[in-house]
Design goal:
This protein is of the alpha/beta class. It has 4 domains: 112 residues, 3-Layer(aba) Sandwich (Rossmann fold), CATH 3.40.50.2300; 109 residues, no CATH class; 101 residues, Helix Hairpins; 126 residues, Tetratricopeptide repeat domain (Serine Threonine Protein Phosphatase 5, Tetratricopeptide repeat, Alpha Horseshoe). It is 60% helix and 6% strand. It contains 25 helices and 7 strands. The chain has a 5-stranded parallel β-sheet with strand order 2-1-3-4-5, sandwiched between helices. Strands 6-7 form a two-stranded antiparallel ribbon. α1 links the parallel β1 and β2. The longest helix is centred in the C-terminal third of the chain and has 20 residues. The mean pLDDT is 92.
């Protein structure tokens, strides 16, 4: 008979559920004292999601570290409970749910209680083996037994991680060195590079879906892989690029809410056809569905098509004189309800460009105080322009170190400002060059090279970028 602990703060609800579940054939105990202090050896624990709130995942984790791992079901109705239940990897049932719904959730939790966490102890329990230390001597027999595990255990365990990225850890190399894995398992492990999610690996193989699920579950329990909702450990260019693309897409979706077509293409109303086409091509290189098709973007994938459709629409309207004229009429009526960086009056655009040019000349002659003054004027006329803001950050850094501020501290602050500014934008070569200079100042030459590559891909003749690339030893074909 399945034993159930009801760890609910509400006395009335706790007593009511205790009676109902007892009548349904369960051995039940209500104990509000165990709301945050796990100590029972019950088969299933009902957690009070409303009372626990943001602590739900922590308390669920504490229950899963017990020698007798219970199945967990959360009871609650609040928005916070709905938000926290997936993070705690528990099924959420409302207090008013039918008894059949609750009993079904309890039976599922009891059956799959060892699928809620990926640890060495749950792996040993799942194969019916006694607890032993997580040491190489125990790996071989454990892995052999795990190969015949009921597929429902890995499937249930991994469903919480379907959109998590799979990144190998040093333990995977240890398993290879100790020849713990079979040849097919080694082939499956060879493609785990941190750039694909669990769902993508299960679909792609090279093992069949059941084989891949078992392997990922086994490696997760052995600590040979990390499963994370964001790209983990950006030590490889592929992971860094993927993380950057995800950040750009999310930032762009937020940036373009209630914006204008000029903000979509990052152009001013003075832009002519050639500028519109150039902007479109730069956006396509970063945000077009075809450019992103080879990347596993996980949850942000749904943002790509509507975002690109907006770019296509903006381009179509702005290159057509009649449509553009009608759009300007619409803008005049709606501007108060829109957010814009780019839809500025022509005199402000011209004034900003002139101030920026003076600031660039001052930087070239080493007059950083004059440069900061002119670049600040450009930003006042045109706040948010990537080139203007990034170069102002570089000039501001130069002025700060002239006044005695710590170089690294000043550079880190300005670098963070520019990196946040450029998220969600198309590539801006001068801004990327300024960011690369700040990376050099923070003693991070690898990031400087990363941003310079992006700048030179757009404008391979930009003098400052070419000079810095030469200093950093970047070979250009």
């Amino acid at each position: 008979m399945t034993s159930v602990l009801i760890a609910l703060a509400d006395v009335g609800l706790g007593v009511q559920l205790e009676e109902q579940l007892a009548a349904a054939g369960f051995t039940t105990t209500w104990d509000a004292a165990q709301l945050e202090a796990p100590r029972s050896d019950a088969d299933v624990v009902l957690l009070d999601a409303d009372a626990l709130g943001i602590k739900l995942a922590t308390v669920a984790g504490a229950w899963r570290t017990r020698a007798h791992v219970p199945g967990l079901v959360a009871i609650g109705t609040s928005p916070l409970a709905r938000e926290q239940a997936p993070r705690a990897r528990v099924t959420l049932v409302t207090p008013s749910a039918r008894l059949t719904t609750l009993t079904a959730a309890i039976r599922d939790a009891a059956q799959l209680r060892l699928a809620a966490s990926l640890t060495w102890d749950t792996l040993r329990s799942a194969i019916g083996a006694p607890p032993v230390a997580d040491e190489p001597a125990a790996w071989h027999p454990t892995v052999i037994a795990a190969r015949s595990i009921d597929i429902e255990v890995p499937r249930a365990a991994l469903r919480w991680y379907a959109q998590c990225y799979v990144t190998p850890t040093p333990r995977l190399d240890e398993l290879r060195d100790d020849r713990v894995l079979s040849v097919p398992e080694l082939e499956g492990a060879a493609v785990l590079d941190g750039t694909r999610t669990v769902a993508a690996h299960v679909r792609a193989g090279p093992l069949d879906p059941h084989g891949t699920a078992r392997l990922l579950w086994l490696l997760g329990c052995l600590g040979a892989i990390e499963l994370t909702p964001e790209v983990h450990d950006l030590a490889t260019p592929q992971r860094r690029l993927l993380a950057e693309l995800r950040a750009h897409i999310r930032a762009r979706a937020a940036r373009l809410e209630a914006s204008t077509y000029y903000d979509v293409l990052e152009l001013t109303p003075l832009a002519e056809y050639e500028e519109i086409e150039a902007a479109y091509q730069m956006l396509a290189a970063r945000y077009a569905p075809q450019a992103l098709a080879g990347h596993d973007l996980a949850g942000v994938t749904t943002l790509v098509k509507p975002m690109w459709a907006l770019v296509e629409k903006a381009r179509a309207v702005l290159v057509d004189h009649a449509q553009r004229g009608r759009y300007h009429d619409w803008l005049r009526q709606r501007m108060a309800t829109l957010r814009t960086v780019w839809a500025l009056a022509p005199d402000r655009v011209t004034a900003a460009a002139e101030s920026f040019a003076r600031g660039q000349r001052a930087l070239g002659t080493g007059d950083v105080h004059r440069a900061m003054s002119d670049l600040a004027a450009a930003c006042r006329s045109f706040p948010g322009h990537p080139d203007y803001e990034a170069n102002l950050a570089w000039a501001r850094y130069r002025v700060q170190i002239d006044s005695g501020r710590d170089r690294t501290e000043a550079a880190l602050a300005e670098r963070h400002t520019v990196e946040q500014l450029l998220l969600g934008c198309r590539p801006w070569p001068r801004a990327l060059c300024a960011l690369a200079l700040l990376c050099v100042a923070t003693q991070d030459p690898d990031s400087a090279r990363w941003y310079l590559h992006s700048a030179l891909a757009v404008d391979p003749t930009l003098p400052a970028a070419v000079q810095l690339a030469r200093r950093l030893g970047i070979r250009r074909s």
